[in-house]
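In this section we walk through a basic example: taking a raw amino acid sequence and producing a predicted 3D structure, encoded as discrete structure tokens. The instruction is simple. Fold the sequence below.
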Amino acid sequence: MTATLSNTTAPNTADYGGDEISALVLDPGYSVTRGGFAGEDVPKSVIPSFYGIVPTVNGPKHLYGENPVHTPLPNIEIGNPVSQNGVVEDWDTATQLWEYAITSRLTNTKPSNPLTNGLNDKTDDLKQEMEGVETQERPLDENPLLMSETGWNAGKGREKLIEIAMENWGSPAFWLARSGVLSAFSAGKASALVIDVGAASTSITPVHDGLMLKKGTLRCPLAGNYISDQLRLIFSTSQPSVPLTPHYLINSKTPVDAGAPSQASYRTFPAGTEPRPSFRAMQEERILTEFKESVVAVWSPGRLGGHNQHGGTNLDSARTQNARPFEMPDGYNQLFGVERYRATESLFDVKMALSDASHPAPTPNQTLPQMIAQSLSQIDVDIRPHLLSNVVVVGGSSLIYGFNERLKQELEAMYPGPRVRIFSPGSVVERKFSSWIGGSILASLGTFHQMWISKKEYDEHGPGIVEKRCK
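The resulting token sequence is shown next.
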């Protein structure tokens, strides 16, 4: 007879590792994968979710970690096991990348076989001692694992995650939590409207009493990468055009005046060994990220395409604001004025979007104010005021200067009745790693131990248990 599942009875200490064993928290995203021990303030392991692919005589070799993916190796190509909408497409590579995030900084790697390390004579005693080591030593033999997932992750994907944790990594216990719920917990709230502006997508997640309201959970592609695409269009249509040459192509540069053509010598590669276009695109994105962090801003008050209280246009007002300088890797530098506001304006006003054949304009329903309105329209009218007074803004792309002020202005214009309050960590680390921090808080609570899905329960009920337990 199948055992009854219970969330009220704690599993035996042996089933989940016990109080003295630290749980691990793994928060995989499209741009960055974060890992660390529960109860700590920040993740110890932060690596790119991108990986390098280099050809070898034995076939393609995958490279993981910060340094390898930014080194211009011969014919290197860049891949990502996660799609732009946050869903895993390549499970084998994702498993290897996540395992690297765990073993490189958090747990010990497997011990090498003393028979093959050249330091020991081959004896029968050693052979007997090493029998079965490969099957016994797994990354998470001693650590329970809490993983985050997107609010729209499908059932098959959820089952695959617990399968990897239990079968591949040997974890004694597992829990799967929605990233929006964890971000609310990181802000100390059981109920909140979580707005997560990441690299590949922006998500709106209503959370009530610690549970995600699935009907109101929405996502759209207007996020960090979209702002980068807007910047590319601004640079290419400027007169003269702004060059976007990555660091790895520059040998040396000479200082030049603002707006003057760059004077740099460029690196060349032997024919047939040049890094692939995907590698260059990633290095260009690093420049654009620096540009977004230091130059780009969100316009307020009002909309950039609208009129101000003096009868003039906000575009004219933006032109009178202090411009900000930026120098490209090849030495080209310029003062950027209205362009710094133009790149982000279409997050709120679709009329200001730049587009071309390869970058179509977004639809009006994809703007942030409309997304929030759609989300709130799907949930109970009685809890809407409470959510509007607990708006939690997270994600690396929400750090752009003026973002929160503009969001508050847009929400107050749409909902003049309820009080709108925005909670957003001032710390860059807390904003970027909010869902990991929420997982660290959750997994370290003493009362959470009764929630773990133990290996014993997994063996009895199979991967389908994650759908029943992790709501």
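Looking at the output, two observations stand out. The longest strand covers residues 202-208. The radius of gyration is 25 Å. In the next section we compare this with other chains.
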